[in-house]
Fold this protein.
Amino acid sequence: MDQIRRLLLENKAWAQSKVEVDQEYFTKMAKDQNPTYLWIGCADSRVPPSEITNTDPGEMFVHRNIANLAIHTDMNFLTVLQYAVKHLKVPHIIVCGHYNCGGVRAAISTKSLGLVNNWVRNIKDTYFTHKAEINGISGEMNQVNRLVELNVMEQVKNLSHTSIIQKSWLNGNYPIIHGLVYDLNTGLLKTLVKIDGSSEMDPIYKYEF
Ligand code: CO
């Protein structure tokens, strides 16, 4: 079957299945959104956030890019973050990496891969900071997987260093930021780190408002 035709047919069946359970499903959904989570994840097709967390439309605001990066000069990411925190007031932000991430593998290699070189450059810095630990791990896959974890924790820190998050923490203790990693081999998520407004931060990163 035509690949796009398949999608449209599946969509029709899905919409119908929702209406069969609740006639008002889409009219209610169309009114507004009030998501509980902002998900910052990898663009990898094997890590679809709603599917692996069994969440419904309306529950999760989503931003995805290669290797789930939260970069201070990325206007796309910052706009999503500001909208989610300031306007949607999400109580939870999730940074989700996954083992065997191609973006992290690209960062740990010296192969030139085009624009990806620039995009994953920050991960090279994370590798450089933790070089002794990573080089002490046996097996390339294990090294990549440790860097995947360190990269998630780095992005959680990056989030806490934004004025958007710090302003929100000043007004309350939200959002709580969770660093998770997904295992492609088991389908399971694991928590690596969890921080909120009471977590420690080096003073150089703290803004005075
Ligand atoms: Co990935």
Observations:
- Residues 42, 44, 67, 98, 101-103 surround cobalt (II) ion (CB under 6 Å).
